[in-house]
Amino acid sequence: MTRLGNMHGPDFTYLGVPKADLDDESTYSDADVVIIGAPFDGGTGHRSGCRMGPMAIRGCDYLPHDGSRPHLSLRVDPLRELKIVDVGDVLMPAGDTEKSLERIGEAVRKVCAAGAVPVCIGGDHTIALADITGVARHHGWGRVSVVHFDAHADTGDIIHGELVGHGTPMRRLLESGACRGDRFLQLGLRGYWPEPETLEWMARQGMRCFEMAEIVDRGLDDVLTEASRIALDDCDGVFISVDIDVVDPGMAPGTGTPEPGGFTSRQLLDSVRRLCLELPVVGVEVVEVSPPYDHADITAALGNRVVLEALSAIAARRRGEPVNPARPLLEGR
Amino acid sequence: MTRLGNMHGPDFTYLGVPKADLDDESTYSDADVVIIGAPFDGGTGHRSGCRMGPMAIRGCDYLPHDGSRPHLSLRVDPLRELKIVDVGDVLMPAGDTEKSLERIGEAVRKVCAAGAVPVCIGGDHTIALADITGVARHHGWGRVSVVHFDAHADTGDIIHGELVGHGTPMRRLLESGACRGDRFLQLGLRGYWPEPETLEWMARQGMRCFEMAEIVDRGLDDVLTEASRIALDDCDGVFISVDIDVVDPGMAPGTGTPEPGGFTSRQLLDSVRRLCLELPVVGVEVVEVSPPYDHADITAALGNRVVLEALSAIAARRRGEPVNPARPLLEGR
Amino acid sequence: MTRLGNMHGPDFTYLGVPKADLDDESTYSDADVVIIGAPFDGGTGHRSGCRMGPMAIRGCDYLPHDGSRPHLSLRVDPLRELKIVDVGDVLMPAGDTEKSLERIGEAVRKVCAAGAVPVCIGGDHTIALADITGVARHHGWGRVSVVHFDAHADTGDIIHGELVGHGTPMRRLLESGACRGDRFLQLGLRGYWPEPETLEWMARQGMRCFEMAEIVDRGLDDVLTEASRIALDDCDGVFISVDIDVVDPGMAPGTGTPEPGGFTSRQLLDSVRRLCLELPVVGVEVVEVSPPYDHADITAALGNRVVLEALSAIAARRRGEPVNPARPLLEGR
Amino acid sequence: MTRLGNMHGPDFTYLGVPKADLDDESTYSDADVVIIGAPFDGGTGHRSGCRMGPMAIRGCDYLPHDGSRPHLSLRVDPLRELKIVDVGDVLMPAGDTEKSLERIGEAVRKVCAAGAVPVCIGGDHTIALADITGVARHHGWGRVSVVHFDAHADTGDIIHGELVGHGTPMRRLLESGACRGDRFLQLGLRGYWPEPETLEWMARQGMRCFEMAEIVDRGLDDVLTEASRIALDDCDGVFISVDIDVVDPGMAPGTGTPEPGGFTSRQLLDSVRRLCLELPVVGVEVVEVSPPYDHADITAALGNRVVLEALSAIAARRRGEPVNPARPLLEGR
Amino acid sequence: MTRLGNMHGPDFTYLGVPKADLDDESTYSDADVVIIGAPFDGGTGHRSGCRMGPMAIRGCDYLPHDGSRPHLSLRVDPLRELKIVDVGDVLMPAGDTEKSLERIGEAVRKVCAAGAVPVCIGGDHTIALADITGVARHHGWGRVSVVHFDAHADTGDIIHGELVGHGTPMRRLLESGACRGDRFLQLGLRGYWPEPETLEWMARQGMRCFEMAEIVDRGLDDVLTEASRIALDDCDGVFISVDIDVVDPGMAPGTGTPEPGGFTSRQLLDSVRRLCLELPVVGVEVVEVSPPYDHADITAALGNRVVLEALSAIAARRRGEPVNPARPLLEGR
Amino acid sequence: MTRLGNMHGPDFTYLGVPKADLDDESTYSDADVVIIGAPFDGGTGHRSGCRMGPMAIRGCDYLPHDGSRPHLSLRVDPLRELKIVDVGDVLMPAGDTEKSLERIGEAVRKVCAAGAVPVCIGGDHTIALADITGVARHHGWGRVSVVHFDAHADTGDIIHGELVGHGTPMRRLLESGACRGDRFLQLGLRGYWPEPETLEWMARQGMRCFEMAEIVDRGLDDVLTEASRIALDDCDGVFISVDIDVVDPGMAPGTGTPEPGGFTSRQLLDSVRRLCLELPVVGVEVVEVSPPYDHADITAALGNRVVLEALSAIAARRRGEPVNPARPLLEGR
């Protein structure tokens, strides 16, 4: 395989970081972070379109694509302080889930093996099955905690007759043992799915799920503290999975299964920042951005910033110095 | 009259609940809740389009239309625990307000007489005059409190030379005595309407209106507590009226008279949930969803969920057991 | 399997014709035409979204869904003169092409076996492989001519590493022998695909393709006359395949692979009308309507009318009397 | 009544022509043309929104609103050569059809009485009943021919239980005798409405309707020649009624009842130009532009230009000199 | 120069206030507030379109444009209690920044000289250089504090080779001495711009910038208290500059450089209200509303209301009586 | 200057052709065609946004960006048969017209000097002044004919007080003598601009303008024959200037000054093809594609295809063999 670039358009990289090629390890062997596009929407149960997500997330920024993004409050420039490359999209035909997942899983495994943090931009959430498995293969079966932002638990069993799709990946991950149920944290759930049988199965796995009512009641900070503590306990790394539909569809319309009543954009950015500052992140995915349902690219811009917030916080954490994002912007400059 | 279905499109029901026919009482005589579509936008003073609201609200859900919606935090499945039927739209030509209101009023009265809770999906807010009157006819003149979520008081006197329209229904309801002014609660008001004379008239009726500044200052919970207390006092039932424009137009653009600075979607869902848990609800309306101004169906989805939140809380209340929506999702499963 | 209805929304039928169930042959055994939804977009190589096509095409009409559509110029009412039923969507998960195609192919075969004309509404053009094969199984291998309206030949060999997808079905159909190359007519081709090798392969099959330059030069009528003559020669039936992207994207934006410079809507309607009047149609498909890229439902409305034009002309042909669509509307009334 | 301006927004006039007030005859007593806004959509049977049409049509032009519009091929400047004033919108609440029609009818009558040509911008087609009646009152009962561009005949009898609405005005006009059936010409009809009984009624009235198939078959020029000849025969004036949905929805999406397969924009402009050059026009209406379904204001721009084309041709005709629009642009300059 | 009106459309004023003409001082000599349109987008570095902002902000309101807007919670009617006129747009060709800025600067200076508060509606933020300079020319060089709501500091040095543009005005204002750095307050900054060198320059100027993390951490009220205190200290007036992109793009999509994670609309309205109540405001600007990227006019509506909130609070402040916006709406009526 | 790429987004080239750098002549010294982006919209008099045109036109294609585009009817692959490179955008700040034009003019001159055909993608039509001048500098002052497709003559004198803008470039070109008036052909003009004085000036220059009425009357083929003959007479090269608004806004909404009644997309493609086959083209520009007003990228796609059609015909012409685009697609393969 040679570098594909964006499967559905011109070849460019996330904010202009250097290109790399999955088939040529030398192009990413010294990378801290490797961006991987997963333009797959064959697993969506309702609206499709998120195959266009990787291209939209990569390119949606009004600033020059010049390899620099100094984070105002974290005071780091992740694109300069980390070595970040973008291997482009993995070839993922929507009609062939099995082959698509194999490819993304193998890509993630390679990246982990090279010592880098894979950042997967989807595509639908089906890819979690492949990329988290890929991370677990490298970092240890059951040794990676997952913090999962989503309106939906994605722990269904069989949907439309299929074991694999964007409603089931978390169940498959727990069934395989790639992840431990009691190190699987979910934030932002709401609505009317899944049904009680699945919730009981989840409870039996020891999962900890923060539905919106609990988050509103306790406050997001308190909930994040608990989630962070659990995730950190007896683990070798943490995977951050962000389904953009955790944000209220009123603020992030470009997605396939919009459930009203979610996070604000601000809350998502703050949550990702805090977790990536506090936890040893070994993988990130941002999924379910569906450009055809977006308006003025606002959901794509949010996806772009979620990735960048994670990168920034990872960079800040690596400095090994205390960070206070709330410090006045110009204080100490 | 025979069943009309959706006046402006294919015949289907709210989330696939069984069809019923207003002219055949046997089809809804044992129902707990009856959905009634009111596709009328002849009363709007500015942008029209909400005649398409009932169809959009009925159908806008990414989950299968399969007669089941288990609410995650309330732990009820309203579509299974309640007997809910949908009589389809009432024939409401926009150009004939009088006939339209007569029809919806009569429909609501029939439903109440059958012992069910009418849930009206509009359509513009003009219908409040008819459906709340219909409820009052059955439950007692002046015996039903109203909790009204809206950016606007809808208590105008004469607008565009007309006594009846979406800016005046609440005044007409108080003038007729169908509702008591001191049991009429309004939440979410803001902006620049109505003018002082009308506000003085409202004060004289004993109304209690929570403008956004007060809500921000005191917190929504505190305000809801006060509203709930008043509504419950010396009443035989409560009607919940939700104008979707109570939510900020930034999150709910699909409406006709957008006034910036409103609720978040989350706040509206939480408010409806709480009131339907605490109060003896005898009728609900969700109005002013205007699909031609919507984007990616996000306002229609919100309308769908407001209805479902009300149904869920009604179902939970009927169980007669204490409910704590903020309880951790998997606790006790 | 029981009736699925619309896979991605409420259950309603094409313009309100009666429901049928593929698993219960009695529901369609006396039908003239059976509508089948194929909500599959896993085969699209670029923009997805056409899985929402069947629902949009079924419901997009401003007239009452009342089982009657009197065609003005053909003077037939196809919904009354033909017995038309709608079996709803076939379950087609985008991520499993093989299973999806099997299901639609089997559905079409059943319908043909029952003596009816299948009218498939897609969904992407991949389904042509299954539904035309299904028709050929019943009417005779190589005995059905195909008239194919499209901007693209869809005769690619392997795309994105896949033999099956929306760019290859016509090649597969000729390779299998289901269709004869010299009875495969294509109208509306333009642009920059496929490459010469594929065109040479097509030439070797004896295909006859009318690129837009030829159509503009000769006039559409002349071209249709030639196509009709070839299709009718030594065949037992004709299949009409309409990819909506044959129309200029300026008039039909809601599609996935828009190639400027196509038919007007009027030309497509006239072409379908004429062919269905002149030829013994045994199957129809209308594909590639992609609602998320549509505006104001204009492409969905066009898809709805292409189906209805075909049904009308089929009905008119069955009357066995001469038809002159250009006769003055009121003449002879 | 005092001048209302735009009922749904700021007060400005069609392309900046002077304001006038219906209640002050001196403001329009010497006018050649009077623009009247009819922001009514209470008669629409499906999508509403055209109440916003008058404002959109008035203001939608990229050129300065400076009182000059020199027509390139007709070589006239209608805004300078005619005295044109705009009386603003007539107050037309959607929910009160009767009162709305009375007001627009009276406005048109006044304008005719003042010796001017009324140009009504809608609003839905219901207004035809009022404004053509108004014209007939002044110019003679049954003495005004009508040339009507539309996808629909608008000759229904009772729709949604109502005699009056946008599907019935032409029937009411013939029933009252305001217009003669044999001087009622319709161009652009297509689709599936009305049903045969109504067509037979139309035939009995002696109407002449040019369905799209006839227009395509004979060519638009030939059809216009016939229509023009009939309209001119034994009449005292001609009313031009343009429903924007005569144009294909692919080119004019902003309308409520889109029927694919219509005119191009160019064809409509050419037709209006030719008829207003050849015939003694005594009234014009442009209706059914529905801004909420429009995109980038293209339908509003078309509506603006249809009005301007009519004004230009009326101005050219009044010069009394031969006009050849096809003359090379710079020839003779 | 004569009155231009809206440079890009019909001539109407902000909510129908009286027209004035900059060249005729008598038209605004007794005004309290003068609205000035600045339809310039030549300074935008990314998406353009905000030249259409002034027209959109002026006209976007569902209430009648009747010269009255009684503010519900402030209990003032700014359009009646203040004398407000609108001089229309200043002629500002996008391609000539220098001339454009000269014109707007001179307009603002004239207005200040007449004793009125200029309210500038943009247009891009480049205009701040001209209008704040214009205010400083009148009220004293370095004597006017600035409170600046924005996602971006706009303190860049040279962008795209240009000293002047929408990313640099605040630097130019401090360099010229028009404003003091230690009286320049910024709220809502976030994201990845500007780079550290610029931040250090800002620190050296003594600026006080409240990044979103600090605002979330401390609460908006606390931050406003500090900003208000600084602004009031040793100043002769305060200028309020509102870049609409301070609001989250999820709620205000119609802007050119959307940075996720901002204020809610409610927060912006409350902030503007409070500051205009507490501070001696001598000028206001609302910029960067870009209608082509807006949806359903929600960003334009927000811009309209930000202006109106400022006007209302200015009017309330002038009454000289204590104001409590959180007082129950009907209390004391 | 180093290569800028896309001024407003990621760096990629037109359909993936190789990158080149204007400052390094070796990168384009052997090129046949050089693509130059001109992202300038500071000259637009009404709606802006076309600065985003170059990026949209470069990337808008559903086919792989793989350096091959075999034209179906011309039987050439321009991306392979010509050496085409893309130098990216020229830095063009909207607010500095003079500097922007200097840069694009110099870029074009360099490209011509290197023996290549410049293909400029705009951006607004102001750039014509610079790029046609650049071509004339190299090929001879007054020696290059211009064929100009547009709804507007663009021969204004002073607009908004400016000599330079998108309404005046053609006048400036004739005034300077860069082009001869009697070798300046315009096709597609229509509407109400410019005024008679300007038309008289145009006539005096000997221009030949084909207004739409003449085109409809004579047929496009006939008109093209005349235009081609004039352009070829006594010239050393022909410049093809395509303003996308020559196409009807109903089919190409994404533009700033939409004038209804234009070409179809098909007609534009056929015209460009024919002229580039018949004439010695030395430069091409495609301007006024404004993405924020586009829908589903249909106007951008058309712009992409106009460029590709020109490239294809140039390639076909260079072969020196007769070409018959209307030859049956598979004949002779």
UniProtKB/TrEMBL annotation, chains A, B, C, D, E, F:
<feature type="binding site">
    <location>
        <position position="243"/>
    </location>
    <ligand>
        <name>Mn(2+)</name>
    </ligand>
</feature>
<dbReference type="GO" id="GO:0008783">
    <property type="term" value="F:agmatinase activity"/>
</dbReference>
<keyword id="KW-0464">Manganese</keyword>
<feature type="binding site">
    <location>
        <position position="154"/>
    </location>
    <ligand>
        <name>Mn(2+)</name>
    </ligand>
</feature>
<dbReference type="InterPro" id="IPR006035">
    <property type="entry name" value="Ureohydrolase"/>
</dbReference>
<feature type="binding site">
    <location>
        <position position="245"/>
    </location>
    <ligand>
        <name>Mn(2+)</name>
    </ligand>
</feature>
<protein>
    <submittedName>
        <fullName>Agmatinase, putative</fullName>
    </submittedName>
</protein>
<feature type="binding site">
    <location>
        <position position="125"/>
    </location>
    <ligand>
        <name>Mn(2+)</name>
    </ligand>
</feature>
<dbReference type="InterPro" id="IPR020855">
    <property type="entry name" value="Ureohydrolase_Mn_BS"/>
</dbReference>
<dbReference type="InterPro" id="IPR023696">
    <property type="entry name" value="Ureohydrolase_dom_sf"/>
</dbReference>
<feature type="binding site">
    <location>
        <position position="152"/>
    </location>
    <ligand>
        <name>Mn(2+)</name>
    </ligand>
</feature>
<dbReference type="InterPro" id="IPR005925">
    <property type="entry name" value="Agmatinase-rel"/>
</dbReference>
<feature type="binding site">
    <location>
        <position position="150"/>
    </location>
    <ligand>
        <name>Mn(2+)</name>
    </ligand>
</feature>
<dbReference type="GO" id="GO:0046872">
    <property type="term" value="F:metal ion binding"/>
</dbReference>
<dbReference type="Pfam" id="PF00491">
    <property type="entry name" value="Arginase"/>
</dbReference>
<dbReference type="GO" id="GO:0033389">
    <property type="term" value="P:putrescine biosynthetic process from arginine, via agmatine"/>
</dbReference>
<keyword id="KW-0479">Metal-binding</keyword>
<keyword id="KW-0378">Hydrolase</keyword>
<comment type="similarity">
    <text>Belongs to the arginase family. Agmatinase subfamily.</text>
</comment>
